[in-house]
Specification:
Length: 587
């Protein structure tokens, strides 16, 4: 059986082979097509037969397992699912206590089908039920996915114990039937719609930051893999539009990832990319996305016509909505981004609705369309790995997903600006929040605890910069970080009694500041300058003597001199936020 026929029997749609067992609440494979019953139960009303050992061996259980009142003689794990019987596999649950240093995971809700496959681009993140035929459909879905080797631009691991950052790229590549007429027919695809999706370490919240395509920035040199397997260095550009970080001069998505890291100090772990055709295919597969217009829309350029109020769009109409810039706000790309964010929020709500999660045929169509539409990095370049990543992201509640746009301002180098540049005053605090995994949403217990710790840290007198005495060591990954920090402290902050002590004895993950009780005022002053979190402060028991200095050891969380290690407690003023669980009418 080849990859495209796997999971089919007698020309029956794979999704139609799964039925809901009313006794267990789980979907089970229907092997006897002459009846409408599941072959996986016995003794229940209408049950036609008891499952044989062979049939039981082919059954795929849900994430919650199979209830004891259902006779199952052999159970198989679904690719991408978490084992409840061993600690092997993908972050499986274990009866053993967690290893030291690993974060504790909150208890999972049982019998709740909420696995998300977050694809990308202008479309959004598509929910796929991994409990529905994942084992049988694995090879078919796996054959749909395209992958690109981005080298060291991303992570080699599928998921991490810490925060995760996924760069979602929607390109303007005109592949697919009927898409040749949109603008640049011969385009190889540029980074047209870009979202840095940050998922918190504890998976309680996520921030989706849109990056304007017309942002003028530095594009760093990057390496791309050639057809013969060798890697070639692609020259950077000192001042170029962000969208040219992909599709020009041989740049691939790894170059876009490097550009994002250069701007924000946040390293993307993975990328997910789709094109125009994916918008049409995915919105059709889900049965349309609800949108709301504050006024009637009639755009002759994109051919978009929508009435005031709520509508449902799919296919060509969905693509027209996401492409139009003349119908909203001041007709800029920034206003189009707001509409795209509203669309994505609506898409997420639709994907997590009961109408989608309880419809096997709809879920199958979504899984098939999503994987066909998707191009990813090789670290997540098969269906099993994507399902693993999906399960991690599925833990985030929709109400705790916040959309923001990178703070920018008109490009001062242009007499009549059509491009923008980063607004450093507002952007750097936001970047710092992402780097330090600070939530933009009201995850109340976590946020209040962090704020109270930080407030207690900074409470009390602070020494003048000229009185701060500190030795700086580099225990992070950036070469020369200690020297660069001392230069910044002396020239920008007035901390003249700072000394470069070169490399620390060993690498550390988190920056620390060691100080004596009688240096607390100096520690508070330095913590405020550098944005040190409360967890970085290590007070000793004995007072300092004479000219003894505090010891600042830069860790893996240090991203550069002058960049705050932890972000402020809330987003800076003037940064618009939108929540994924709230419907908003586009203006």
């Amino acid at each position: 059986m080849d990859a495209h026929s796997r999971g089919r029997a007698d020309d029956i749609d794979p999704a139609d082979q799964w039925v809901l067992n009313p006794h267990t609440g789980n979907y089970e494979l229907r092997l006897d097509h002459s009846t409408g019953e599941s072959g996986g139960t016995s003794g229940g009303p209408g049950a036609s037969r008891t499952a044989t050992a062979e049939e039981s061996g082919r059954r795929v259980g849900s994430r919650t397992g199979t209830r004891e009142d259902v006779p199952v003689q052999k159970r198989h794990e679904v690719p991408g699912q978490r084992s409840r019987r061993s600690s092997q596999g993908t972050r499986g649950a274990s009866a053993e206590p967690p290893a030291a240093g690993r974060r504790k995971r909150k208890p999972r809700k049982t019998r709740k089908k909420k696995a998300l496959l977050w694809t990308g681009g202008v479309m959004a993140f598509v929910v796929v039920g991994t409990s529905l035929g994942a084992y049988l459909l694995y090879e078919k879905l796996n054959g749909n996915i395209d992958a690109i080797d981005v080298g060291d631009a991303g992570s080699k691991s599928v998921v991490t114990d810490g925060p995760m950052n996924i760069l979602v790229i929607g390109t303007d590549k005109r592949t697919g039937k009927g898409n040749e007429g949109y603008g640049d027919k011969g385009s190889t695809g540029h980074a047209d719609t870009n979202i840095l999706f940050h998922v918190s370490e504890d998976r309680t919240n996520a921030t989706a930051m849109s990056i304007p395509r017309d942002l003028v920035t530095e594009i760093p040199e990057c390496e791309t893999k050639q057809q013969d397997g060798t890697r070639a260095a692609i020259p950077g550009a000192a001042s170029a539009r962000f969208n040219t970080s992909l599709g020009q001069n041989g740049r691939d998505p790894g170059c876009t990832m490097k550009t994002v890291e250069n701007i924000t100090g946040v390293k993307p772990d993975h990328f997910m990319m789709v094109d125009f055709n994916a918008v049409k295919e995915l919105t059709t597969a889900v049965g349309g996305v609800k949108v709301c217009m504050a006024k009637p829309i009639d755009d002759p350029k994109s051919h978009l016509k929508l009435p005031q109020g709520e509508s449902t769009v799919q296919g060509e109409k969905a693509l027209a909505l996401l492409r139009t810039r003349d119908s909203f706000g001041n007709r800029s790309d920034l206003d189009r981004i707001k509409v795209q964010q509203q669309f994505l929020g609506s898409m997420i709500r639709e994907m997590k609705s009961s109408d989608t999660l309880t419809n096997p045929k709809k879920l199958y169509k979504l899984a098939d369309a999503a994987t066909k539409a998707l191009t990813v990095d090789t670290a997540i370049g098969d269906a099993k790995k994507l399902m693993t990543l999906a399960q991690e992201i599925s833990e985030v509640d929709t109400k705790n997903i916040t959309f923001v746009t990178m703070p920018v301002k008109d490009n001062p180098a242009e007499p009549k600006p059509v491009t923008v540049v980063v607004d450093e005053t507002r952007a750097e605090p936001l970047f710092a929040m992402l780097r330090s995994d600070t939530s933009l949403t009201e995850v109340k217990q976590k946020k209040k605890a962090a704020q109270s710790k930080q407030a207690a840290l900074l409470k009390g007198p602070k020494a003048a910069p000229a009185d701060v005495r500190v030795d700086v060591l580099n225990g992070g990954e950036i070469p020369g970080a200690a020297g660069a920090t001392v230069t910044w402290l002396q020239n920008e902050q007035g901390v003249l009694k700072s000394t470069n002590k070169a490399n620390a004895p060993e690498k550390i993950k988190k920056t620390t500041l060691e100080y004596a009780p009688n240096q607390a005022d100096q520690a508070r002053a330095l913590a405020e300058m550098m944005g040190l979190p409360a967890t970085a402060m290590k007070q000793g028991t004995a007072d300092a003597e004479g000219l003894q200095a505090m010891v600042l050891t830069l860790g893996g969380d240090f991203k550069g001199a002058g960049q705050l290690i932890t972000g402020p407690a809330k987003a800076p003023e003037g940064v618009d936020q939108a929540r994924a669980d709230k419907a908003v009418c586009a203006k």
